């Protein structure tokens, strides 16, 4: 509830309505947080609250990570060659991590506090007014299931608990402007403090942003959990009891407020630091996920947020944290590794959908993958963590057969490394890539799938097994899809080189589509990942369905012969099974509202598949026996199914004229 003394703030102009008729605000970044300058000190009339000046860890420079080919690396070598005597004689001292040309942030001219502008203060108060009360905040967090999470859940839980334990009196049903202004000052001062990225003690690392040290990044992380949980609050786990929503419209509006606060927290944190940190990187990355849900995977906001996450990660140098000697994992080091590889994975997923070049190449990834450790081990004592590390196998996976939150991401990253190689061939300059190179890539993909941890290997019986929960079923299906998609891309590359086995391409297209349909035919059991359905059908089923449509219209293989095509689960692929599968695909595509993100793409795909089915099934039988030649319709002049390798949705673009298709 908003205090009468708090200036009302419209969270922004709302975008087009969702399928429920409720407008959903698109992510465009915060525009209400002004960057602090020295001039603000005299320009602002808000003297009752101040922002602490920026202070940066003296071991961190505002130049960020400077690599091998930078000028700083050369002068670092010069510095290493200087003797300590020369340094003292010159009146200088060498600081590890500092480079020539870097600007160390220091207090300027004795100015210790900068007042915020009116709009910035208004933003701060809006964020604090929007924090849910403790019962609702805890319920939303407990109900949240996110396979795309990159944080350590026990740490997020501790941050949530400490927020209400420390400042619960500020965050009641009725909130006082004076108290929130005081909390704003605390948050701004804490956010400006140095953040020790390499703190080995988990308690000290967590203490930097919890309790009385709460930062804007902390609130940004919590708002991410609340926003994503509020999307599925009618599908929560049965063991949780969230407060009843005040109607669907109110719930959707609340979701928009949470999303606005994510952007505001990011902007406020960015205002207070010139170098960023791991916490801010997490917020940047999760904005990509939220933008894909709100605006669509092909949208500009999703693409740019992905770019910002990659940029901050490389600025911090997290991609080049290679082992020097024996690696001793800590909470801080493992969170950084997790973020690096999850950003790498999602970068490839976005490129798979859009056909745009990925922003981060595996060739620049020197940081080893995170270890397959349970979240609780990372916040445990040193001895417990050491035992867990010692129990891992030679590949870094746990040996107890468990599926931890990071197990899925480690295995997925291995497939994405291969996909990155596929992209180099398919999206780069066409060179002398031989068929042997592609067949070798295919063999590596098959081996990577075989080496996948058993706990992530999907079996057909999993769908009907009551002992296989959503937490387990979803990663297994998704890993199967990623494997099939890699094979799908490779088979299409082989076709480009004129050496494809059409049976293999058709089989993997069938497998890709069939596996995606499991989400549609088992929607109740997979309700916790409801929001993912809309991109899963577009990213995996639609491309495979396009190849199946083409096969119906212009057959390349004889499907009903004795030695025909067999799917991955042993099912014979026939014209009948393809028609039935495409009929299911039409239903799945139709389920996605045209008003939702990716809805226009799904709607266009549905129209095409429907017309293909109509053309194939409505052919009048010939008295001579064989069916009439439906290929008399020059389908290629209307729909170009021979799309470029990754330009999968060229045939669904809005500029395509649908009026010239035969009825």
Automatic annotation (TrEMBL):
Keywords: Nucleus. Residues 1-25, 85-115 are annotated as: Disordered. The keyword Magnesium does not apply. Its main location: nucleus. Residues 90-111 have a biased composition (Polar residues). One of its GO terms (molecular function) is DNA binding. Residues 302-376 form the Xylanolytic transcriptional activator regulatory domain. GO terms for biological process: DNA-templated transcription. InterPro entries: Sec_Metabolite_Reg, XnlR_reg_dom. GO terms for cellular component: nucleus. It comes from the Eukaryota. It is found in: Nucleus. The keyword Cell inner membrane does not apply. This is Xylanolytic transcriptional activator regulatory domain-containing protein. It comes from Colletotrichum noveboracense.
């Amino acid at each position: 509830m908003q205090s009468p003394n708090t200036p009302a703030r419209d969270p922004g102009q709302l975008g087009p309505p969702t399928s429920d008729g409720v407008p959903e605000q698109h992510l465009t970044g915060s525009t209400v947080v002004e960057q602090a300058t020295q001039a603000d000190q005299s320009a602002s009339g808000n003297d009752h609250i101040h922002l602490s000046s920026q202070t940066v860890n003296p071991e961190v420079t505002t130049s960020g990570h400077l690599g091998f080919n930078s000028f700083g690396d050369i002068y670092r070598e010069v510095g290493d060659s200087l003797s300590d005597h020369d340094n003292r004689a010159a009146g200088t001292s060498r600081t590890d991590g500092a480079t020539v040309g870097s600007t160390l942030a220091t207090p300027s001219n004795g100015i210790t506090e900068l007042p915020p502008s009116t709009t910035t203060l208004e933003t701060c108060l809006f964020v604090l007014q929007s924090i849910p009360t403790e019962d609702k905040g805890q319920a939303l967090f407990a109900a949240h299931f996110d396979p795309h999470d990159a944080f350590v859940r026990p740490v997020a839980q501790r941050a949530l608990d400490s927020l209400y334990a420390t400042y619960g009196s500020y965050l009641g049903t009725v909130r006082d402007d004076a108290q929130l202004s005081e909390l704003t000052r605390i948050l701004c001062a804490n956010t400006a403090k140095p953040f020790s990225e390499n703190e080995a003690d988990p308690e000290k690392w967590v203490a930097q942003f919890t309790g009385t040290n709460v930062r804007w990044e902390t609130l940004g992380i919590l708002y991410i959990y609340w926003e994503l949980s509020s999307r599925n609050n009618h599908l929560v786990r049965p063991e949780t009891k969230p407060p009843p929503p005040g109607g669907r419209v109110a719930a959707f509006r609340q979701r928009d407020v949470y999303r606005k606060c994510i952007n505001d927290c990011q902007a406020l944190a960015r205002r207070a630091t010139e170098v960023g940190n791991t916490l801010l990187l997490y917020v940047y990355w999760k904005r990509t996920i939220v933008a894909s849900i709100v605006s669509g995977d092909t949208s500009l906001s999703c693409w740019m947020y992905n770019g910002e996450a990659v940029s901050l990660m490389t600025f911090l140098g997290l991609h080049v944290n290679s082992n020097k000697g024996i690696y001793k994992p800590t909470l801080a080091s493992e969170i950084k590794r997790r973020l690096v590889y999850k950003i790498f994975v999602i970068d490839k997923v976005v490129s798979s959908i859009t056909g745009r070049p990925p922003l981060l190449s595996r060739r620049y990834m020197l940081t080893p993958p995170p270890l397959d450790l349970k979240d609780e081990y990372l916040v445990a004592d040193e001895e417990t963590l050491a035992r867990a590390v010692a129990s891992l196998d030679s590949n870094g996976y746990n040996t107890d057969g468990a599926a931890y939150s990071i197990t899925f991401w480690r295995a997925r990253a291995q497939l994405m490394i291969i996909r990155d190689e596929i992209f180099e061939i398919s999206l780069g300059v066409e060179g002398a890539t031989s068929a042997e190179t592609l067949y070798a890539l295919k063999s590596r993909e098959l081996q990577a799938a075989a080496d996948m941890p058993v706990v992530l290997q999907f079996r057909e019986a999993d769908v009907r097994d009551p002992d296989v929960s959503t937490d387990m079923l979803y990663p297994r299906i998704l890993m199967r899809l990623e494997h099939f998609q890699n094979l799908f891309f490779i088979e299409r590359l082989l076709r480009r080189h004129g050496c494809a086995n059409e049976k293999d391409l058709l089989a993997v297209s069938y497998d890709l589509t069939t596996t995606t349909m499991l989400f549609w035919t088992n929607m109740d059991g997979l309700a916790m990942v409801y929001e993912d359905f809309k991109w899963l059908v577009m990213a995996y089923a639609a491309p495979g369905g396009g190849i199946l449509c083409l096969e119906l219209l212009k057959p390349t293989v004889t499907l009903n012969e004795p030695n025909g095509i067999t799917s991955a689960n042993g099912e014979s692929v026939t014209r009948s099974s393809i028609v039935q599968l495409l009929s299911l695909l039409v239903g799945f595509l139709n389920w996605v509202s045209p008003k939702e993100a990716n809805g226009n793409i799904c709607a266009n795909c549905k129209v095409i598949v429907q017309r293909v089915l109509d053309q194939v099934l409505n052919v009048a039988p010939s008295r001579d026996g064989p069916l009439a030649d439906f290929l008399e319709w020059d389908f290629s002049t209307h729909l170009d199914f021979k799309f470029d390798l990754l330009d999968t949705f060229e045939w669904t673009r809005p500029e395509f004229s649908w009026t010239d298709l035969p009825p």
